[in-house]
Amino acid sequence: MDNTSFSATEACTASPLRIEIDMAPRESLELDFSALDVYLREYSPRGLLDGFNHPLSSDTSSITSGNYSNSTAADQSSNESGSDVDMIEDEVLHISRKSKGAKAYRNKRKDEIAYLRDEVQGLQAELKALQFRSTRTRNKRTSDSTALVSSRTQQLWKQVARSQLDRLHRSEAENATLREMVAVQVLEAKNLRRILRRRARIEMMQEMFGAKGLKSLQKDTASNDSRVFQTLLHDVDEMFVEIDNLFATKGMDQLPCSGFSRETNLEIANGVFYEMRQKRELPFDMQSTANAVWECFRLLGLANLQGVGSSSAVFNVHPNIMEEDGDTIRSSFFAVISGVGDLEGTYNEKVVRRYKDSHRSVFICRVVSKPKFKHGNRGAPTTSSAQVVLEESADDVNTTVMKVYFSAERETPAAKDDPATVLAFAAWDELVPRIPVDIETILLDNICRASATPA
After folding, report:
1. Are 352 and 329 in contact (CB under 8 A)?
2. In 3-state terms, what secondary structure has residue 412?
3. Which PANTHER family does the annotation name (predicted)?
């Protein structure tokens, strides 16, 4: 009994102390559960159930207490019934104490739990308040520091912004100036392109017509045409005297009336190195044919040539002097040549003279060609002659027999790789066979013009 009451009393009295201890440091509830465990071990489940099933009211307790006191006083004299009474009293007291202790402990535990809950809620509220104040303080400090930093750097950033704005304005002004300059440059480039195109066209035209090389030939050519013309006319007169012997020697009467005969000999240093013979019958009278031959010799050598021979050479002819006096023609012309090495062209001096007999007409054309190269170099001059004899056909008065003898000669040998000689051969091969054809063309044109002219 003493141990039991002491344990219960200790458990009951220990709870408030534990509550105070727990309230001060707000530790865990493990001590309360340990006290409850001690209480349950000290009291048996049956006793607890008996105490809970037979609760004692305050009146009952007082009556019982009175009975105990009376019975104790009455039974002190009797030794037989004393032990039974003591046992009953102890049992009743034990049950009463157990019931009161359990109720008191339950009430105290509820109060403790409620109190602890209130404390927890209060502490949580205080914690939230502290957290709110801490957050507000931290935000205030941050805003204050930001305000301090902003106030320190605001002026610097304004200066940076102003400088960058000034730089932007300067850059825009420079860009505008550069755009204007670029527009001017584009306009100048267009004008320059237009000028270059015009110059290219001019150069192409000059190249086509030989105007560029003409200036060089004119600069390097000496003006001694009159003396050369006199020499050529003297040679023509001598050739006329010997023309019958020449034609007989060359067998001109035995030639067929179609095609031509060509002979060359480049090994000849002084004399004729190129010959071509032709014979044709033309269905035109002597007078008309003679006029056509005269017109053909006037234009001989003045035609432009392209792609002479197998080369890419181009001949552009520019007349210089043209004089006609009765039966004599004196002329000079420049032949600008491109596409043949360093050869720039030739300067040509030509004389034409015609002779008339009762039964024939003789035409002799003699040309001196002086090649000129770049850097002022000169080549060996070449003299070419074209002799034409017109005779009436024995079978028909309106048919004319035309004999053409062409020859080229030189006084000094030319170099083996002289481009002028090779090119001259190609030009003669193209021009000389065309003489009869050109005469026929002139005759036909005259007939057409005569028929077109009203009577």
Report:
1. yes
2. coil
3. BHLH DOMAIN-CONTAINING PROTEIN, HYPOTHETICAL CYTOSOLIC PROTEIN
